[in-house]
Amino acid sequence: MGTEELPGLVRDESKQRRLKIGIVGFGNFGQFLAKTFVKYADVYGINRSDKSNAAKQIGAKFYPSYDVANFLKNNLDVIIMCTSVISFEQMLGTLPKDQLRDCLLVDVLSVKMHPKEVMMTSLPPSTDILCTHPMFGPESGKYSWQGLSFVFDKVRISNPKRADQFLSIWDSERCKMVEMPCELHDEYAANSQFITHLMGRILGQQGLRRTPIDTKGFENVLNLVETTCLDSFDLFYSLYKYNVNSEETLRKLRESFALVERQIAAKEAYIAARAEIAMDERTNLLEECRAIIKEALATSTLQGATSDALVRKLLADRLDEEQKKGGQPQQEQQGGKQV
Amino acid sequence: MGTEELPGLVRDESKQRRLKIGIVGFGNFGQFLAKTFVKYADVYGINRSDKSNAAKQIGAKFYPSYDVANFLKNNLDVIIMCTSVISFEQMLGTLPKDQLRDCLLVDVLSVKMHPKEVMMTSLPPSTDILCTHPMFGPESGKYSWQGLSFVFDKVRISNPKRADQFLSIWDSERCKMVEMPCELHDEYAANSQFITHLMGRILGQQGLRRTPIDTKGFENVLNLVETTCLDSFDLFYSLYKYNVNSEETLRKLRESFALVERQIAAKEAYIAARAEIAMDERTNLLEECRAIIKEALATSTLQGATSDALVRKLLADRLDEEQKKGGQPQQEQQGGKQV
Predict the structure, then answer these.
(1) pLDDT of residue B9 exceeding 60
(2) Which residue in A139, A188, A211 is closest to B211 by CB distance?
(3) Which of A36, A66, B22, B233 could disulfide-pair with B76, CB 3.0 to 4.6 Å?
(4) Is residue B186 one of the residues assigned to a domain?
């Protein structure tokens, strides 16, 4: 876990045989990787629809899906699955397993436990498995991969030299190399990536616009919506469906929403109750005053001129008593009122 | 509406009589304003608890709440209410209305229709009313007010010179002067300030932490939580309770949450249905093939050596037919997969 410099890797690829890398799924993301891979390796792409022109421009060899037999005849060192999360299992199923015995199989999905389990279950025991999550894409990594996070887990590696040679591509491109178990990745992701997408999707439906009185906090909200709503619903769905932790994240968020609504209701009730009690106390006080005045008036018929002073004393005593009780603060202090 | 330069204001206060400004509620925010006001005006503070030391340091004269009569004997030009939203109405009620006839009453609350209505209802018709929302406070305006938004609405002004002299303080401090009706302020605020606080409060309960694999979107989430959860629950409650638009904002957000959950459920159902249909079609295809083979075998007993070719032709016809039907795409293209 954490960032690693991978100091043991040999960066000078001239001393090594060039890797042969097969890319299964030669769409946007597959082509994006191929553009960099060709600097370090021979690249072969395979895709259902024709991408031969794109492959030619990049300098990769292209095969249509039905020609998988010839694609695999290239003695590929590494096969990297560039499919969506949803179609990953099905796509892996289209590859003849017995021809993958000597390969390193790599995935690049945004969830990690799912592809790990699928590959562990369906691949021959001699196939090496490397689970990765390049946390960037054609947009964010358009000009450079420098400083962008590359998460990886050496799930099952019998040929460490080959795996390291493949990893050295990302390291040479100055990615931030983050080695992390698939399980931990998904734990983190549910409480960062998924919650971000969830909030972004919910807020994205509010039709929010910039106003002349935007606060800094609201700028953050707008940025959040912008960064997440560009991504497909399929990706969002995958972050939910194929990460065991996401359901709990969704549940907690739903609960917190309800809790905030309950807190508002409780505050309303509290303020109403306080106002009622204050009113009751005022009524009681007035009644007591009335009784005192009656008493004073009764006394005054006996004692004449001292009645005024007596009323004043009785009232003062009563008010003093009230004050000692404390009562409610008249005024709330302003803390961080302004926003 | 929009920013204004207020070009007509006379900035050189030496040509004008110094204003006498009374601050009702001499807590954090009242003191914060007083520190700047003393540069332009004589400042008088009144507060329930004793703030005479703070007032002395600032250069203002202090009165305890019970001494409101003497506080008002200063012939105040402007009285600015620095209370919380919740206690605003009650605090205004403690001022003897007939002594406010010749004053300009100002509020600084984060909601605007509520104080406008309270002041319009309870103040004498000759009292001038200016509703304002300085969108900053002791933290953000610690060193300078330059560029910070000051929203105001001249609700009822019979003495424009006095109001302009008061506004010129904010303008001289280089605030971004935003003149806007209270109603529009609250419309904007419900869809910016309130929604920001609501999201911040909900997310604040998730116990989110930075992880080694944070995305830019998640940074926005963390910033949102940090900027909103410093503010009091009372402020959040006020943004809800005292802005007529906030209930609708809360309702829409609750609906969007439910909608996203329904979208997830719909996607699950869709994928399951597609898988089922694909399985059904495969079963049908196999059964038809079986029938064709039986037919071919039956024919072969009659025609001998041509049976192989016949089976091949029948199967090819059937598969061709299937292909024309189209079927489901095997593979989903990767759009903005990575995040």
Answers:
(1) no
(2) A188
(3) B22
(4) no
Interchain proximity A332–B84, CB inside 8 Å? yes
Q: Is residue B253 part of a domain?
A: yes
Find the residue in A nearest to B249 (Cα).
A206
**Chain CA centroid to CA A149, Å:** 15
- B337, A235: Cβ pair inside 8 Å? yes
Distance from the Cα of residue A204 to its chain's centroid:
15
Q: Are residues B204 and B58 in the same domain?
A: no
Report ipTM (2 d.p.).
0.74
Closest CB to B82: pick one of A25, A233, A334: A334
Same domain for B77 and B203: no
Q: What is the pLDDT of residues B43-81, one digit of tens each?
A: 999 999 999 999 999 999 999 999 999 999 999 999 999
pTM above 0.90, yes or no: no
CB contact under 8 A, B217 and A233: no
- Residue A295's pLDDT is what? 80
Question: Could A217 and B228 be called an inter-chain contact, meaning their C-beta atoms sit closer than 8 Å?
Answer: yes
In this prediction, residue A301 carries a pLDDT of 60
Contacts of B198 in chain A (CB under 8 A): 260
pLDDT-flagged residues of chain A (< 70) = 1-15, 300-311, 321-339
pLDDT of residue B328: 43
* Segment B153-189, tens digit of pLDDT: 999 999 999 999 999 999 999 999 999 999 999 999 9
Q: What is the spatial distance between Cα B196 and Cα A199, in angstroms, rounded to a whole number? A: 12
Q: Do A271 and B336 touch (CB under 8 A)?
A: no
- Residues A163, A238, single domain; the answer is no
Taking CB atoms and an 8 Å limit, are B1 and A84 in contact across chains?
A: no
Split into its structural domains, chain B has a count of 3
Give B166 to chain A, closest Cα distance, Å.
20
Q: How far is CA A216 from CA A221, B170, B195, in A?
A: 9, 20, 13
Looking at the fold, whether A260 and A238 belong to one and the same domain comes out as: no
Q: Which of B266, B282, B299 is the last residue of a domain?
A: B299
| Cross-chain Cβ contact B257/A254 below 8 Å | yes
CB pairs under 8 A between A and B: 311
Residue A165 CA to residue A149 CA, distance in Å, equals 18
**Which domain does B278 fall in, by range?**
246-299
- Select from A151, A199, A205 the Cβ nearest to the Cβ of B213: A151
Tell me the per-residue pLDDT of B251-279, one tens digit each, with 9 for 90 and over. Answer: 999 999 999 999 999 999 998 888 888 88
A211 vs B47, B192, B231: nearest CB = B192
Q: In this structure, are strands B176-179 and B149-156 parallel, antiparallel, or unpaired?
A: parallel
Starting at the edge strand found earlier in the chain, the sheet holding B104-107 runs B3-4, B176-179, B149-156, B128-134, B104-107, B78-81, B19-24, B41-47, B61-64
Cβ contact (<8 Å) for B28 and A337?
A: yes
Average pLDDT over residues B276-288: 83
Give how far B71 is from chain A: nearest CA, Å.
17
Residue B276 domain flag: yes
